[in-house]
Amino acid sequence: MSYSVFTHAERPDLAERAAEGGDEVWPEYNRHGDVVNLHWRSMRVDHPELQFVLYDEEADELVAEGHTVAIPWDGTEVGLPHGIDGIFDLAFGAEPKTALCAMAAEIWPRHRGGGLATTLLELMGEVGRRHGYSDLLACVRPSWKERYPLAPIGEYAHWARADGQPFDPWIRVHVRLGAELMRPEPRSLRISGTVAEWEEWTELPFPASGVYVFPHGLATVAIDRDADIGVYYEPNVWLRHRLDR
């Protein structure tokens, strides 16, 4: 496939088109993060030079989109933010930014399976180098974790295949590109909503208060019918790409 790469700053028209395609990429529940939804548009609008699209000009079709944002980071594992929510807490402050964070690699469904995940990560690394960052950090949403929602993320992150490569395909892509596995993040992204909202997002009834496994969830959701709330914390895994090597 032939495609062109444009930052949002270069092609704001394509950025607008891409913004309308999120429901094709993510499970519905995952589009309602408490902190993420406060800042996602600001990331796109305030930092268009750090977002990019892959575009098939002949077909006039969007293929994929990459999102990054810069944060202050002291270079230590302890100094990492508390997951995706923590990244956004730091990204819009006045403190000088020292590392780039990979926020999302979004591939439109009909274009999946062709190796574009690797391409998107490589392009994120190019964005980082272009803007003078020596590290690309990724708080990764493991692609097969939804198959094992009860497995602790600290254990899952270190599962390996017989050949020694990471078990999870998305973690494996990062590691094959030289990423260093850092710490797990059990509560990376908070999503809360009413019971009715959670039933709509998951297309699953929650008849009683309790902890539930649900479709595409990486962990469980805690439902409290008396308080009319469901709370879910998405578990992620930190990886580090050193861009100065």
Poorly predicted runs of 5 or more residues: none
N-end to C-end Cα span: 29 Å
Percent of residues in β-strands = 25-35%
Number of helices: 7
| Fraction of residues in H or I helices | 25-40%
Radius of gyration: 18 Å
The assigned CATH architecture of the largest domain is 3-Layer(aba) Sandwich
Counted beta strands: 9
CATH H-tier superfamily of the largest domain: Gcn5-related N-acetyltransferase (GNAT)
3D shape: globular
Helix/strand order:
EHHEEHEHEHHEHEEE
The CATH first-level class of the largest domain comes to Alpha Beta
Task: Please describe the biggest sheet, giving its number of strands, its sense, and whether it closes into a barrel.
Answer: 9 strands, mixed
Average of pLDDT: 95
CATH topology value of the largest domain: Aminopeptidase
Instruction: Write down the domain tally.
Output: 2
